[in-house]
Amino acid sequence: MNSSIYRINLDIHDVRPQASVRITQNDTARRIIISLSDGGVPYIIADDCYAVFTAAKPDGTVLYNDTVIVQNSRIQYDITAQTVAAAGTVDCQIRIYGTDGTLITSPCFTILVTGRVFDDSIAEGTDQFTALDELVVSTASLQSVTMSSINDAKLAASLANTVAREANSAVSKANTSASNAESAVERANNAASAANSAASLANAATGNANTAALSANSAAYAANTSAENADAKSELAEAAAGNADTAAAEARGMFDSFLEIGSSLNIFDVDSITREIFVYEGQESPNSVYFATGYMKCNGGDTLHVQFKTSLGVRVDLAEYTSFAEIRYMEAYDENKVYIAGSNVGNQRTYTVPDGASYVRFTFYLGFLSGASDIMIFPSSDTSIVPYKAYDEKNICVKKSCLPVMEVKAFLPDEFCVAAGRTVEIYNSQVCPDAANYHFKWKCQIGRALRRKFSVTGTADNIGTYTLELEIYDSENIMRWNGSSALKIVPVLSPEYKIVPIGDSLTNIKKWLPEVMNLSDNKVSFAGTRAFSLKDSEDSVRTGFHEGRSGWTAARYNQSGDTVPDENNYKYANPFYNPAVGHFDWNFYVTNSLGGVSPDGVQLFLGTNGISLDPEENASAIKTIVDYIRQDDADIHIYVVFIPYRANQNGIGSQTASDGFTALNSGVCKYEEDMKVFNLMVRLNTLLKDYQKLFFIPLSLCHDSENNYGSVAVPVNPRSSQTEIFPSESVHPQAEGYYQFADVIFSTYSAHA
């Protein structure tokens, strides 16, 4: 039957879920082909990489399966029965491992498993770890997901195929080069298929490297060409097998980073005991009064508890259960079951496994046999009673620390400033765009840690500098991020303070300008070439000047302006551009536009226009302006504003072109827009934080973007009289938003003027 193919695209540059496919429960003739890109460019997977399909199923079980094909930027996964065994949403990721231990994890995608019309009696969903189970079943000692062994195994298989084609009569010579192979004649006819199977197994999991090597040796036994050719090819096959064995040995150490023995599992198997045997220094000797356990899997450094289950089901230590005789010896072995140490342990309560050991055996008196099924040996002090489970089948679980953990993206600046009489708030969803998935713990001597924000009011009594700390926890109360800022409560500024505000439409005749003047009792004034006359929050008219130009990017301030300014079409002259030097010139501006009188400070409120996920171009353009200003004036205060986040998705989707901003409703996503603001903020902080007399105004963190963009009642659907509230737009706040801007801007001026 031909497989039904789903094709999806995932961009590893973006961590959000990006695709979903719908599959009927228990359908296995399905295939998913995943094309990976990195910021829109195809992401090429190197030949030596290994990909694993991981998923969390709706019934709580998990998958950790090898993929079938990894080619260039595409990954093919054939749906297994367990993948779609349970109806509901399967959350999936692809993990790609490099030979150097590096890891790339794809964004999540989902498989929506829909129920069938009738029950096919398929077994209930279980955890499925094909990439790990095959590894363990093939060889309990091979503990690896190392990519180098895959390549060596591929080489082994290739050499084996060559041997099968070119050799005819090298059975005796091949026997010399491959000591670990038996029954060569019987497997001769299947040599070529065994070699191909080895290659396939090697692609599926590193652990099959030994199988591939064995297939290579088997192929050598089956050689059917001249003795001269067979001799040479047999030597090649032996070398290939050696390479695979070496790779496997190097890989063993990595396995324990993915797997662990369940600490509450009983490692004693009553069916493995041998009667009338005494084990001492790795040697078995006949003895009528003893019996020995089989090899019990453990780790060096484990503390083993030998305990017993009483008739009442209570587990007790050996010394407390006097009806049994004593244990005589404990012997330790390495991963190849080679003896490394032993001791006469007597009636001890616990036994420490020597370093480097992978197995132990105990010697008991035969008096234990009548109650051997009640013996329990645990690598922990767990008090639960569970039956024995074989290590190489069921005693393995994926460590939680190895499962994909989403990086927490969060940011706090070096300082937050609050002027006396002002309230400044810091919003969780703007410190961390993915805040809904985490829990926030704000810690400070003053202020209030609320559900969605931290809020603090400056007063004359709390003037001073405090440490504001933030810890972010996941749903299991594990701290995933922490940071801190200086929280400065400052008096309102008292001297006259003149600022040149450079910006885009968020500066161009906006209400934060008169409100800052109001808060400062006209101590702050604004200079520039463009006039404003606006009412503040108390309905008083304030006048001044500014350099806000709707629609302008930071880069445009470094270019010549329009020859004929036309404010109706958002065309403006650029007073900062000096034709003689061909770029932004601060001295040129002060001389020609400010009459040679330099202001106390300059504010750059830029970045909304030209914003993108990659902040480099935008941030570099802002830095260029900063550098030109600082080049001409070493002492002027420079304020860089972190731009505000947009409104919610309803506001973004309803946005129309306005005030120099061109709406892009289709394909514009709230989270993506948030990450653009977040990335620009972080990049500006990195580029400019060490500049002297430069201060950040953290509007992006302190503006209530959830509520300050206005509200419009909109029908919930075209035929309904019921309404829901949409923001008026998503870029330009309403008056309350600009007044909140003013609180933060004025507080920062007060701290540094």
Class computed from helices, strands and strand pairing: alpha+beta
Distance between the termini: 77 Å
Helix proportion of residues, in percent?
10-25%
Poorly predicted runs: 133-154, 160-164, 167-189, 222-227, 252-264, 321-325, 381-404
Principal-axis shape:
elongated
How much of the sequence is in beta strands?
25-35%
Q: Can you give the mean pLDDT?
A: 79
Q: Write down the Rg.
A: 36 Å
Polypeptide structure, described:
With 753 residues, the chain is of the alpha+beta class. Strands 31, 32, 33, 34, 37, 38 and 39 form a 7-stranded mixed beta sheet that branches. β5 (50-56) and β6 form a beta hairpin. α2 (147-166) packs parallel to α6 (209-221), α2 (147-166) runs antiparallel to α7 and α11 packs parallel to α13 (670-688). The N and C termini lie far apart (77 Å).
Tag the structure with descriptive keywords.
single chain, 753 residues, alpha+beta, seven-stranded mixed beta sheet, six-stranded mixed beta sheet, 15 helices, 23% helix, elongated
Topology:
Blueprint: E1 4-11, E2 19-24, E3 30-38, E4 41-42, E5 50-56, E6 62-66, E7 69-71, E8 74-78, E9 88-97, E10 103-105, E11 109-114, H1 130-138, H2 147-166, H3 171-177, H4 184-187, H5 191-204, H6 209-221, H7 227-251, E12 259-261, E13 274-280, E14 283-292, E15 296-297, E16 303-309, E17 315-317, E18 327-333, E19 339-344, E20 350-352, E21 359-365, E22 375-378, E23 396-398, E24 415-419, E25 423-427, H8 428-431, E26 439-443, E27 448-449, E28 453-457, E29 464-473, E30 479-490, E31 497-503, H9 512-519, E32 524-526, E33 530-535, E34 541-548, E35 577-578, E36 583-584, H10 586-593, E37 601-605, H11 616-632, E38 637-641, H12 649-654, H13 670-688, E39 694-697, H14 699-702, E40 712-715, E41 723-726, H15 735-752
Helix pairs in contact: 2-5, 2-6, 2-7, 3-7, 5-6, 6-7, 9-15, 11-13
